[in-house]
Design a protein that fits this description.
Blueprint: E1 34-36, E2 42-44, E3 47-51, E4 59-63, E5 75-83, E6 86-87, E7 91-95, E8 101-105, E9 120-128, E10 136-146, E11 153-155, E12 168-172, E13 177-184, E14 193-196, E15 205-209, E16 212-217, E17 223-232, E18 237-247, E19 252-254, E20 260-264, E21 273-281, E22 299-303, E23 309-314, E24 322-327, H1 333-336, E25 341-348, E26 357-367, E27 373-374, E28 383-384, E29 390-393, E30 396-397, E31 404-408, E32 415-417, E33 423-426, E34 434-444, E35 451-460
Parallel strand pairs: 3-10, 12-18, 20-26, 28-35
Antiparallel strand pairs: 1-4, 2-3, 4-8, 5-6, 5-9, 7-8, 9-10, 11-13, 13-16, 14-17, 15-16, 17-18, 19-21, 21-24, 22-25, 23-24, 25-26, 27-30, 29-33, 31-34, 32-33, 34-35
The structure holds calcium ion (4 copies).
Length: 461
């Protein structure tokens, strides 16, 4: 049933004109009013009440002006929409095919909580008649917006509402966990409560303050699961599934390690760095790791009894210790007599009651090696003739029978030599006459490192 109430502006009495065109009537301004659509608007104590969050295109009522010139047709325009003198924009006038003018909601959501104090929107409308000397008048329509209870919602730390919220906890065994939850409610004075289901792990403590909760606790077991977290304003519940995972402690490791290291005498000198190890823990690279600066800190220890060796550890008891093995003396054939010597390294992380550690055994061996020696430096020629071929041999001995390679620095084009046999063939022309200083070098060409040099002065004449 439609109840029609006519609201008249300025409390003037309206005199209804008689039907028919009375040309004797003077042209007067129309008086505007609205016929409320009570399917959508609630009338209470003479006030029009309309709920927040209504859809767009909802009819508030039909505009209905009258004046004493009964044949007049009217045109309506919204002049202003205000709440407590603050402009708002929630209504439009829609003219249908039969020239009816309806006041309707537009696309802007009516948000009770966002409106100023009185929550009453006053819409000033100008009505214009179609007299040749157009007359207009303004009339006000007052609509009070009422609150509708809205569901509480989850949000992030920046206050942004979270839709499709899928919270999760990723904790690490024996490391204190800490996280926050945030939620809110559009409605005034509502602090929705937080309830968690029995599946919540015991180690996790939820402390609620207003519409935030602090999640704290230290897990002692590796586990996964989920529990229900529900926020409720008393009317609406908003449950979410909280998944949780407690991860295990991983062992710290050297990024590379080989259990045996050997080298021949001559290959490392005092001051040489021979091996470097980097201690790392994969927990420190896991996503959402809870260790911060406190975990997993790695401490490297070692045992060794090698005279020529020193071990330097930098950044020990940190996330990135580095270990360097360095010669503090030049390893000799005396050191080679000791054979393989054992070193032990251990890395441990600082996970409170369940530290993980890894031990490495290294066998270090210095292998005997003698230097190669020139054998016939006394027998090399001092003088050779030009325009003839002269052949001599550089001889050497190596007690280890290493493969030896000869080289001569910057040899002239008339000098050829065999790197393996040491046979040197000289074919100088007379234009090559003169004095020459050669430097012969013999190298251990297998896995030895020694090299010897000998200077040879030669005259061509
Ligand atoms: Ca509300
Ligand atoms: Ca609410
Ligand atoms: Ca670890
Ligand atoms: Ca040798």
């Amino acid at each position: 049933m439609l109840v029609i109430i006519i609201m008249v502006n300025r409390c003037e009495d309206v005199e209804l004109a008689l039907p028919g065109n009375n040309q004797d009537n003077p042209s007067v301004a129309p008086a505007g009013a609205i016929i409320w659509d009570e399917n959508n608007v609630i009338m209470e104590d003479g006030k029009a009440i309309f709920p927040e969050n209504s859809a767009a295109g909802v009819t508030i009522g039909r505009l209905n002006a009258t004046d004493e010139n009964p044949d007049d047709e009217f045109n309506y325009q919204i002049k202003s929409q205000k709440v407590d003198d603050i402009d708002v924009n929630h209504f439009i006038i829609d003219k249908d095919s039969e020239s009816n003018y309806d006041l309707e909601t537009n696309n802007n959501i009516l948000d009770y909580e966002a409106l100023a104090g009185s929550k009453s929107i006053i819409i000033a409308i100008t009505v214009t008649d179609d007299n040749p000397d157009q007359k207009t008048s303004d009339f006000d329509i007052k609509i009070e917006i009422t609150n509708v209870n809205e569901a509480p919602y989850w949000k992030n730390e920046n206050g942004q509402e979270l839709t499709n919220y899928q919270p999760s906890i990723t904790a690490d065994i024996e490391i204190p966990f800490e996280s926050m939850l945030y939620w809110d409610d559009e409605d005034y004075n509502q602090n929705p409560t937080l309830i968690s289901s029995d599946q919540k792990p015991e180690w996790l403590i939820i402390t609620t303050t207003g519409t935030t909760a602090e999640l704290t606790g230290t897990p002692h077991n590796v586990e996964t699961g989920s529990f229900l977290l529900t926020i409720s304003d008393g009317e609406f519940d908003f449950p979410v599934d909280m998944n949780f995972e407690v991860r295990s402690n991983q062992k710290p490791k050297f990024t590379s390690f080989s259990p045996n290291h050997s080298f021949r005498v001559g290959c490392n000198q005092q001051g040489d760095e021979i091996i470097e190890y980097q201690a790392r823990d994969s927990n420190n690279n896991s996503s959402l790791f809870n260790g911060g600066d406190e975990y997993d800190l790695l401490t490297v220890g070692y045992t060794e009894e090698i005279g020529w060796l020193a071990i330097d550890i930098s950044n020990n008891t940190s996330k990135t210790p580095n270990v360097k093995l360095r010669c503090i003396a030049t390893p000799s054939n005396d050191d080679a007599q000791n054979g393989g010597q054992q070193l032990t390294f251990s890395i441990t992380d600082n996970r409170v009651s369940i530290p993980q550690d890894t031990t490495y055994q290294l066998t270090m061996e210095v292998l005997e090696n003698s230097e190669p020696e020139f054998a016939n430096t006394d027998a090399l020629p001092d003088t050779i003739q030009s325009d003839t071929t002269t052949v001599w041999t550089v001889e050497w001995v190596d007690a280890d029978e290493d493969l030896i390679i000869l080289s001569i620095e910057n040899p002239p084009s008339w000098l050829e030599y065999d790197v393996s046999t040491g046979i040197i063939t000289a074919t100088p022309d007379s234009i090559n006459n003169g004095s020459y200083e050669f430097e012969y070098t013999i190298n251990e060409d297998n896995d030895g490192c020694f090299s010897e040099t000998f200077p040879h002065s030669l005259t061509v004449e």
